[in-house]
Amino acid sequence: MMTLTRFRSLVAGAVIFSLSxxxxxxxxxxxxxxxxxxxxxxxxxxxxxxxxxxxxxLRRAPGAGTKSAREELVNEALMRAEIIxxxxxxxxxxxxAAFARFAxxxxxxxxxxxxxxxxxxxxxxxxxxYIGIQMSWPRAVNSRYGANGQMSAQEFIGRLQxxxxxxxxTNEYILQQVIFVIPxxxxxxxxxxxxxxxxxxxxxxxxxxGGKAFAATMHDVSIRDIGRVLEPQLPAAxxxxxxxxxxxxxxxTQVTDRGVEYIAVCxxxxxxxxxxxxxxxxxxxxxxxxxxxxDPNSVKYLDELRKRAQIELR
Length: 314
Hints:
Elements: H1 4-11, E1 35-39, E2 42-45, H2 46-58, H3 66-86, H4 92-105, H5 110-119, H6 124-145, H7 153-162, E3 170-181, H8 191-204, H9 211-216, E4 221-230, H10 236-244, E5 254-255, E6 259-271, H11 274-292, H12 296-308, E7 311-313
Antiparallel strand pairs: 1-2, 1-7, 3-4, 3-6, 5-6
């Protein structure tokens, strides 16, 4: 089953690149398609609703049906327009990469995932449209209410007082990323070969200090010093492996839009300062919101859009 939390973990860390094409709805309705709703100037067809209803069933969402499907698509039409207006859209390449990561994490090729979605009545295009919204909407919310939902000084002091002034403790990581680059023109052609090379290099990885010299001995290998990352900030797609990795060790490899990658743990220590405490509190708030199934700022933002919109349900 694919939950929203699981989906977010697969696409976390996507790079912002303002291209409205990444959020493009599926092709215009064909002759004979009925109109299910009109949101401002956006038409939602019966065919769109049928695909979303199938997608809800695939997600095993409670109350999956035509009404829920139409409501979700109405909300997405409002989100899409607002994302494009504020320039918060991810790129088509980011969406395609997320789609590929989702397939890979479920031990499928992109072609196999596409076939499964088609058989389920969803289609890859419909899923990618959903991915584009899910990746971009939090960025629009952050631009409206503040990046990363940063706590105000008053909120922070209030949380500390609640904990009797005791700041939470978390782990601080210093990380290095090793990327076996695959040029766009060779994607799919040399991925297997590069994956084998990356796996072999993990056994010989000399540690972070020697990482760049090590990479220089190999063809098209890039080293990126990620630097300081607190445990709640670890990229979701890598978090499980990073928590298991020892200092000087590496994660397993992953195929990404850049090539084949793994991450090394250079250093790890416990910290308890003001910044770390804020990060922990924010992570706790986000986890609570996800368990409740909604982010208060997201709900507020969408409500504002609905009040201003012209929505006609058929």
